[in-house]
């Protein structure tokens, strides 16, 4: 009997599982969402079907409330959803063959680092006179060939003419038109003029080299401006370097002294990077200049501070198969996508049933006159607006649609001398391309189930974000009276732990540390201790000061929080003596000090009360027979 029920149910998962105020939600929708999100659910109670059904029901209640409040009609919501839809659809409306060719080209280019310079004559996209700009950059090219590129750099004004060295770059670092021109220009030569969205360029290729690969490195950084008044940045980095030369651990010193907090706790380790990927040429050149894993640079400066870099690993460019999926995403996000669009249009022409009106182009060519160049052209009174221009499947697009397009395009031809038939041909192609792609977009939810599900998830998620912001998050942040009342009721939850104000002396040598401790107990200053313990060849002690919780990882795990000079501790592969200037005992946080935590907790309370109100506002009906069938299907 159970087998029969399960078989019967699996044939029709469209049975209603849940109704929220009469709106039916199918079992299939619940099963799809449950399976997709199961691994993401943190609360074990929500992994059982009853627990997840409660979560799913509350999600549906929030959607119902958002629509009751007409948040889906808000202009900001519509604008954001439309933006996302445009982005998402690019992954579904593309030609695979065109994409594959562009991915292969991008891979080949990613194996090369290109060093180039360029001359640009800036040109607005709607500029009337492009010949002058072309001739100007052509003349500059002739001068560069004759006088040398560097001799033209004084012409750079940063406004209309740019003469610049671009350094090394690879695929995706420049707009595609520029990238292609550069990669198609031999080393040492200057290209002929070419157009990009910025104007007319010529590019000189100074060098081609194989890609330097992907480097994994660690660094110790000292900011130019430190919060620690004891620190002189250059002296600090040189002292750290001395300690490295003395054999101390790079990772331990990074944990103790690096000002890059994102990497310090990982021993200074950075995410892998390629040449041209970082915003510091000095850093890249120093890092890639290391010959062997484990090699360390001398201290050097970048725009961000002082650094010491350690090479951990250098990987060559990965194989095409390993790179393909990432490159495909980059291609679809790049200006290369225009080429994919053109290929897709050709494919859609064969996929859809398309009927053309063969008389249309001649009709519109006859309508154009000199007013079109003056942006004063109007459609005639006897214009055949309802006549079919072309038809895609059963959807008709009319002369009126194309007439509107021609009127909008008028500005592009202002002051130009282009034949009317050429204008009509060009704009018909543009209109047809945008129309057929839009038709595909408008019908994609019906044609592609995966796309439909993803779009629905974002549509609902964006709506719920706006709802939660309005009903919960903003209320918690702006309701000062309610926040104060909540804080007063829950004061016990917001307490300071014990903290200490300290000066920490650190050394890799336990023997030095014992001497340092004696000097500290005698009240000697940091300067006096450093003068006695350090010398030009050896950096044997460094100091750090600040206020820290007693459980801060900078402090030893067995640290005793009491005033005075501590015993010698071992922590992070080094030895430390801690001069505790004062102990700040545990105590009540003020509302201002605990505000972030209080707001988060207050939001939780507001949300719980609000959800209870939604349960009261809307009628919930669960189809028990369908629920049992769902359980049987998911638990088998």
From TrEMBL:
- Its source organism is Winogradskyella rapida
InterPro entries assigned to the protein according to its UniProt record, in alphabetical order: PPIase_dom_sf, PPIase_PpiC, PrsA_foldase
Instruction: Using the record's annotation, list all stretches that form the PpiC domain.
Output: 111-207, 212-313
What Gene Ontology molecular function terms does this protein carry? Answer: peptidyl-prolyl cis-trans isomerase activity
Keyword terms = Isomerase, Rotamase
Q: What is this protein called?
A: Peptidylprolyl isomerase
Q: What is its EC number?
A: 5.2.1.8
């Amino acid at each position: 009997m159970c087998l029969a029920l399960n078989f019967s149910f699996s044939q029709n998962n469209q049975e209603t599982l849940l109704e929220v105020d009469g709106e039916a939600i199918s079992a299939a929708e619940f099963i799809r969402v449950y399976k997709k999100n199961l691994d993401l659910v943190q609360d074990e109670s929500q992994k059982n079907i009853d627990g997840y059904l409660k979560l799913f029901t509350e999600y549906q209640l929030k959607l119902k409330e958002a629509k009751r409040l007409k948040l889906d009609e808000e202009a900001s919501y519509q604008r954001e959803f439309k933006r996302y839809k445009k982005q998402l659809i690019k992954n579904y409306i593309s030609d695979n063959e065109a994409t594959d060719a562009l991915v292969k080209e991008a891979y080949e280019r990613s194996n090369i680092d290109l060093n180039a310079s360029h001359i640009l004559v800036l040109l607005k996209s709607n500029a009337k006179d492009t010949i002058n700009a072309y001739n100007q950059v052509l003349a500059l090219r002739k001068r560069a060939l004759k006088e040398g590129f560097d001799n033209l750099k004084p012409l750079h004004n940063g406004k209309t003419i740019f003469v610049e060295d671009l350094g090394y770059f690879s695929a995706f670092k420049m707009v595609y038109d520029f990238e292609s021109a550069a990669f198609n220009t031999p080393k040492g030569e200057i290209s002929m003029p070419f157009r990009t969205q910025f104007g007319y360029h010529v590019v000189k290729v100074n060098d081609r080299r194989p890609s330097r690969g992907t480097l994994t490195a660690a660094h110790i950084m000292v900011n130019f401006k430190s919060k620690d008044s004891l620190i002189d940045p250059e002296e600090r980095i040189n002292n750290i370097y001395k300690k490295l030369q003395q054999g101390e651990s790079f990772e331990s010193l990074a944990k103790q002294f690096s000002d890059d907090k994102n990497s310090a706790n990982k021993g200074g380790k950075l995410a892998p990077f390629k040449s041209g990927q970082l915003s510091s040429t000095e850093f890249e050149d120093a890092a890639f200049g290391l010959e062997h894993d484990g090699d360390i640079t001398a201290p050097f400066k970048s725009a961000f501070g002082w650094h010491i870099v350690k090479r951990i690993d250098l990987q060559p460019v990965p194989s095409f198969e390993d790179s393909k999926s990432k490159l495909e995403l980059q291609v679809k996000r790049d200006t290369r996508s225009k080429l994919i669009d053109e290929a897709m249009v050709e494919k859609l022409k064969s996929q859809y049933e398309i009927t053309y009106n063969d008389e249309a182009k001649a009709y519109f060519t006859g309508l154009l006159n000199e007013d079109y160049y003056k942006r004063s052209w109007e459609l005639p009174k006897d214009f055949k607006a309802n006549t079919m221009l072309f038809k895609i499947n059963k959807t008709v697009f009319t002369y009126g649609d194309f007439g509107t397009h021609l009127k909008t395009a008028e500005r592009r031809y202002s002051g130009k001398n282009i034949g009317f038939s050429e204008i009509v041909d060009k704009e018909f192609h543009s209109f047809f391309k945008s129309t057929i792609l839009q038709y595909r977009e408008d019908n994609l939810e019906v044609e592609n189930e995966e796309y439909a599900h993803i779009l629905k998830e974002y549509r609902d998620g964006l709506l719920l974000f706006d709802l939660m912001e309005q009903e919960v998050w903003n209320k918690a942040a702006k309701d000062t009276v309610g926040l104060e009342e909540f804080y007063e009721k829950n004061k016990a939850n917001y307490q300071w732990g014990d903290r200490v104000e300290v000066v920490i002396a650190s050394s890799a040598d336990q023997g030095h540390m014992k001497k340092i401790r004696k000097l500290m107990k005698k009240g000697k200053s940091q300067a006096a201790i450093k003068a006695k313990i350090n010398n030009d060849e050896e950096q044997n002690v460094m100091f750090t000061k600040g206020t820290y919780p007693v459980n801060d990882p900078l402090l030893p795990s067995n640290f005793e929080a009491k005033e005075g000079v501590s015993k010698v501790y071992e922590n992070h592969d080094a030895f430390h003596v801690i001069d505790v200037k004062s102990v700040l005992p545990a105590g009540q946080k003020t509302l201002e000090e605990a505000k972030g935590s209080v707001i988060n907790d207050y939001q939780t309370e507001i949300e719980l009360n609000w959800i209870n109100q939604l349960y009261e506002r809307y009628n919930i009906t669960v189809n028990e027979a369908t629920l049992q069938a769902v359980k049987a299907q998911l638990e088998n």
